Amino acid sequence: MPHSRHRATDQPPARWLAWLLLGIAALCVAGCAGLPTDVQRTPSVAITNGADTPLGRLVKAAAPPGEPLSGFRLLPMPQFSLHARIELARRAQRSIDVQYYLVQNDETGRYLLRALRDAADRGVRVRLLVDDLYTAGADPLFTSFAAHPNVEVRLFNPFPAGRDRLGTRWAWSILDFDRVHRRMHNKLYVVDDSIAVMGGRNIANEYFLRDGGSNFIDIDTLVAGAVVPRLSSLFDMYWNSPYVYPIGALVPATGESPQQLRARFDRLTTGPDQLHPEALDSTDLLGNNPLAKDLDAGVLTLAWARAEAYADAPAKALGANDAARGPPADEATDSVLYNVRRYLRGAENEILQTTPYLIPGRGGMETIRLVRGNGVSYSIVTNSLAATDESLVHIGYRRYRAEMLRLGIELYELSPKRVEQTQRFGMYGSASGRLHGKSAVIDRRIVFIGSMNFDPRSMLHNTEIGIFIFSPQIAQQLTSLIGFIRLDGAYQLQLGAGGAIEWVSPAAGDGADTLLHQEPETGFWARWRLNLLAPLVPESLL
Question: How many CB atoms lie within 10 A of CB 507?
Fold first, then answer.
C-alpha cells in the first residue's frame, strides 16, 4: 500500500471548503452513505491502581509527602517528546491508552505503532482511538495493527464510504456535512494509569522535526500522580461513547487470517524509510534529561503541583440536536472552553497566551475587554500569514487584529525567516517553523496546556482536552519558552498613526528596528487572494 504523504493540518476547515465543492459536484455519482447501525462496542475501562507497576512505583517514590499532587515536566523539544512516548510504551506493564486527532501513516506514525505493537506482544492492553478525518488510505495499516492480541482500534465519527481518499470520503458524505465536519481534536497518551503525555502535538512527522518542509513549534507535558486517573476516565468517556466505531465495523474483512494481517503490519511498518531516531545524549532546553536516562536511574524529576484536567463531552460534537449536545461549551462547567475563560477572566496581573489560530469571536472579545478593563496585561503569540498553514483562517483573525491592538493587547506573529535565522530557536526545536502550541500562563502561577485553539472551531464544533497546572515553577518555564518566540522569532504588531497595522521586526544588537506596512514575508498574490475571498468565508466554520 502506498504510504500517505499529504500534510494534515490541525485546523482543517479552510481545506474542507474545497472538498465541499468537490463533493457537491460528485453528488449525482456518489449519493450519500450511512454509518453501520448494528455495531458491537464492547465496553472497557482503564486498568486502575497502577501504583504497583514499575512506572507507578517510580511515580510514588518521586512524589512529595502530604497532599496528593501531580508531577509535571514540560516537553518543548520534539525529539524529547517523541522519545518520552516511546520509552513509556517500552516500559508499560498493563495498559496504554492512546487518543489522537491524527496518527499519520508516515515514518513517525508507523514508528509509534510498532512500539505499541511490541508492548501488546508483552501482554500490555493497547487501546488506540483516532479521529477519522485524516485516516484516508490507512485502513490496511490500522486493521493489521488491530489484528494483534491485546490491541483494539476505534475511530471517532468515521466516514462510512470512499475511505481510500479524502476526496471520495467527502463526496460520499456530503449530505451529512453537519456531522462529518465535527471532529475529536483531543491528544492524550496514558500508560499504566500512572504517567501520561498530553499537549498540542499529534503523531506525524511535522510535529517531531521529521518533515522535509516546515515543522510545528509546539508544547507537551509529561504528567504523573494524582491527576492521571482523571485523564484515564476522560479517555474512557470517549472510548465507550456511541460516536466511536471499532475499525472492524467500518472496513470489510479481507479473508486474511490474523497471522497474515500481522505479517502485513510488519511489511507496512518496515523498510528503507523506517524511522531510527538518533540517541538523545544531552539535556533539553530546560535542562531535563531524556526520560529513559531518568527511568533507568530510578529517579523521576518532576515539578509537583495541584492540577485540574477537563475534556469536552463527545456529544458536544455529535449530539443529534442542540439538546443532545448539552449546554454550549462556554456554559458547560466541565468543558475546556468554560474553564479557560474562567481562569483568563480571573487574572489579576498578566496573561501570556499562544495559539496557532486566533479568531476570538464575540465571547473571546468579551474576555479580552474584561481583563484589559481590569488592568491586566495580555500578550498573545500566533501565526503570521507567512507562517500559518491555513491562510483562510487568517481572514477571520485579521478581522479582530486592530480592535485587539486598540484594547492594548500585545500581539505577536511568528516569522518563519526569523525562526530560521535564530540559533536559539533551533534549540527550541524547529529550523523553520509554524506555531502550533496552545498554552497560557496566568499571573505567573497558573498554566494551561491542551488541544484547544482560540477559534470558533474549537469553541463550537470540535472536542478538546486541556490541563491547568498551579505551579509557579512550570509557569516560569513556559514564560521563558514563550519569551524565546516573542524576542527571537516573531514580529510585534502596532497601530500606525493612521490606524493601519504595522509589523515591528526588532534589530539585532544596537541597530534600528525594521518597520513593515504589509503582511511580512508574503507576496502580492497571496494577499490579493485573501482580499478576494474575505467576504465569502463564514467565520463559524473557521
Answer: 10
Residue 139 bears catalytic tag: no
pTM: 0.93
274 C-beta neighbours (distance < 10 Å), count: 11
Q: Reply yes or no on whether 436 is catalytic.
A: yes
Nearest to 432 by CA among 150, 213, 135, 107: 213
Q: Of the residues 220, 438, 461, 488, which is catalytic?
A: 438
Catalytic choice (83, 148, 181, 187):
187
The predicted-structure confidence for 478-534, as pLDDT tens digits, reads as follows 999 999 999 989 999 999 988 999 999 987 767 788 899 999 999 888 888 888 888
Angle at 454 between CA 343 and CA 457, to 5 degrees: 125
The predicted-structure confidence for 120-144, as pLDDT tens digits, reads as follows: 999 999 999 999 999 999 999 999 9
60 is catalytic: no
Q: Which long-range contacts (CB under 8 A, 24 or more apart) does 160-165 make?
A: 160/33, 160/34, 160/35, 160/36, 160/250, 161/33, 162/30, 162/33, 163/135, 163/136, 163/137, 163/139, 163/250, 163/251, 164/136, 164/137, 164/139, 165/136, 165/137
Enumerate residues 6+ apart whose C-beta is below 8 A from 264: 140, 144, 256
Q: Residue 238 is placed in which grid cell?
A: 470517549
State how far the Cα of 48 lies from the Cα of 542, in Å rounded to an integer: 39
From the list 148, 316, 436, 461, the catalytic residue is: 436
* 296 carries an active-site annotation: no
